[in-house]
Amino acid sequence: MPAVKKRPQTINTILNDVIQRVNDDTQRLRILEQSSESLTSRMNSLEQAMLQNRRELQKAFSEINDGLTSLDDRLSKTENTMKEVINHVKKLVTESQVKELQNLIEIYNPVKSSFVTKEEMEKFVSEKLSRQREQKPK
């Protein structure tokens, strides 16, 4: 009998060892599963953050693009306006033309110049002729 008692103790010991190993392996698997779930959660979080950042960048690029388009339009309008102003300035009179006009105005200015009317001239001529006629017979 002593031999039979040793056998169940050996089987019990083996079973206890196997059970302990299974429990240890189960605990390790749980830890690995938790680590895997944690990593999956972190990856999902990073993926969501990257998608959000991408959306924000796309929005920012779109706004920048709209701003550049607006600036391009404003620049084109400014260039057109400048061309119109240059053309208008080319049509304006120059300083020498203004001085020439001033001289002509001074020449023809009735306040400064002595202009005579037709009647006055005819009267003057007739008087002059009369005087000359009077002076000739003498």
Our count of helices gives 3
Give the topology string: H per helix, E per strand.
Answer: HHH
Which blocks of ≥5 consecutive residues have pLDDT under 50?
Answer: none
How would you sum up the global shape? Answer: rod-shaped
End-to-end separation in angstroms reads 199 Å
| Fraction of residues in H or I helices | over 70%
Q: Care to count the β-strands?
A: 0
Question: pLDDT average, as an integer?
Answer: 88
Give the arrangement of secondary structure elements:
Elements: H1 2-91, H2 95-108, H3 118-135
Describe what you observe in this structure:
The chain is rod-shaped and about 180 Å long. The chain contains 3 helices and no strands. The model has no long low-confidence stretch (mean pLDDT 88). The longest helix has 90 residues, at 2-91. It is mostly helical.
